[in-house]
Amino acid sequence: MYDLNGMGERAVAAKFDAGLLKTEKKNEVLKTCAEGLKASYSEIISANDRDIEKAKENGVPEGMQDRLRLTESRIDAMAEGLLEIVKLPDPIGEVMEEFERPNGLRLKKVRVPLGVIGIIFESRPNVTADAFGLTFKTGNAVILKGGKEAINSNIAIVRVLRKALEDCGVNPDVLQLIEDTDRETTTRFMKLKEYVDVLIPRGGAGLIKAVVENSSIPVIETGTGNCHIYIDRDADLDKSVKILFNAKTQRISVCNAAESLLIHKDVAEEFLPVLKKALDEKNVELRGDETSKRILGDCVIPATEEDYGREYLDYILSIKTVSSVEEAIAHINRYNTHHSECIVTENMETAEKFLDGVDSACVYVNASTRFTDGFEFGFGAEIGISTQKLHARGPMGLKELTSYKYKIYGNGQVRG
Amino acid sequence: MYDLNGMGERAVAAKFDAGLLKTEKKNEVLKTCAEGLKASYSEIISANDRDIEKAKENGVPEGMQDRLRLTESRIDAMAEGLLEIVKLPDPIGEVMEEFERPNGLRLKKVRVPLGVIGIIFESRPNVTADAFGLTFKTGNAVILKGGKEAINSNIAIVRVLRKALEDCGVNPDVLQLIEDTDRETTTRFMKLKEYVDVLIPRGGAGLIKAVVENSSIPVIETGTGNCHIYIDRDADLDKSVKILFNAKTQRISVCNAAESLLIHKDVAEEFLPVLKKALDEKNVELRGDETSKRILGDCVIPATEEDYGREYLDYILSIKTVSSVEEAIAHINRYNTHHSECIVTENMETAEKFLDGVDSACVYVNASTRFTDGFEFGFGAEIGISTQKLHARGPMGLKELTSYKYKIYGNGQVRG
User: Fold this and answer.
1) Distance between CA B211 and CA B12 in Å, rounded?
2) Residues 126-145 in B contacting A (C-alpha not used; CB under 8 Å)
3) Contacts of residue B377 in chain A, CB cutoff 8 Å?
4) Exposure winner among B92, B156, B228, B294, fewest CB in 10 A?
């Protein structure tokens, strides 16, 4: 049996080291790691070649093979990513609040690392360096479990990064990779509550569901997005076209892409044909209710109940006509994944009703849902988009990888 | 099968109502609830009598019976608790951050309710009113699951509170009680992820473990406390005696009581006899290592490995001699439950080392661990003490029962 307990113990020992590292030291390590990656093209690429070869043998589609492939420029991008993290402010040690009680106790609420973070991810091996950079800058130890398809690449990248940690005199166990890709080992990893403080799945809906159902470690759910664009009665037509087109088609495979259009019945006749014309440029398939089908004709496939709950990640859009903003809000709150939704309207009262009523991490007025992203928000980094309400919601940057403790200063106070 | 899905659906409908209530309305409801409780002595006490009767039949110990018993003055205290919550500021709607991006998008990070909160608790029926008051003031809907032993009392209290909600024209499903005390129903409740946003167990270590292991809903772990007092080489003797005596004996059954004493070897000879003399007043049993046994004699029972990990909740204290603050920190991080620990020292350099190194929600210098409490911290309320690192750590007041969302204002921005 793969020794997960041993890894857990080493991670716990390492988290105490990592949590006390000074910012300068952490930055030195990240720079050394970046250099290490750039000095290891051949080692990493030859490991990656073995993954690609196996993918070909297994008949993995070209697109998936491409996501898996590492080149010198992609390794440079990983190194660049680490250097970007060097530039970000270190949140650890920040005094978030400070106050004194009538009995003279002085309390400081101080930002600290989460401790040991587990990350389970799929396919793209660049996540390895990326996740290490973010968790290390925030003083955490990380245990990574990547996909079987990228195992050789991940092993090579982790070897380079651990070598850099050792060269800097830092406990290399702040970064560990589970090299056994057996499913049973992954399930055991989700139960490693004694050692791991939080588990973050990064990948498709299936992976996330499996983690939520099997983990006894607290989980941060990320990244499923059935995002809605609601075009209100008071919407501007040009903005509507621009925003819907961008949200649906600019990049279809991502969680902040739009999957569903709601449109107010009073503007449906006028707007829908214009919207369709724009979407036709990308051959977007439309699945709509009866009203939209009446207006647009047979090109609209009748939408099923299931359609409204789907995250297509494809050139497909569901359509529903509504009679009010209230109906739009109720529909969204029934079918959404609490990720990102947008109202297009020139009426600020209606907009505020929508912003208040919709239960999602990010709610937009007159802007594309594609902006839900740690970089677009100015966080300088992103470990994922949280779609749950505990701990962090929406884009998670460095601060969202931290916890806090209370430091309390007394001079002999006891409780009466 | 008890209809938990129906309860879940009603709670979700109610959470949208509750989240939009104005502060004044919420306060009006809480006042009406307080009046309702005071007007229902006989109804509540006669229900409570049935619980007490059954407890007697089942041979429940006197102490437990007392915790279960409701009197007019205890009902008054419940009503008082609700009125205290009226006075607290409403955190909902608070703009936590506001910023603008170079593309003109304006972002507001706004505090919102968590949504539907599940609370599983044991014995004392006053938790029912208490938990309702805190979750309602923060705009949440709550589903309560109390213990079998208090079921009649809980049903009566919930009936009174729901009546008050209806009288105020508020959806009474913001407060629901699971009336079926079957264990299988409780286990199904823990899987109600589709409707419940967070689950908070309040009770003993066994209850908390069962919830953590079985829940697919995100859990906030509360309330297990194996708290340590470390008396440093540079400690003041008087403060040491006062703090240890208070932390160990002022109230033994609570999570912030001390369970273990660490003492620096250089002061053990001088301090231990004085500490023992104080603890003798309460007949505290001592379970110590060899050094403490050599100093104090045969009254010290040899401590086992298991003793150092125990939360006694009794007049028992484990003792360990250490050679340095580093050894104290390592011992604590190995055996603690991440709740509260204290260093007694006059050396601020040593104190800071301890504050930084110990992995607990609350770390004290020269004060009793008994202060870890929402009221003592000035939060004005407390739903529990979180011992995990996700979302909230330490005493949880109103703010800790909230989440946030981003409201994003644009004028047609799309992603390039």
Assistant:
1) 22
2) none
3) 101, 107, 406
4) B294
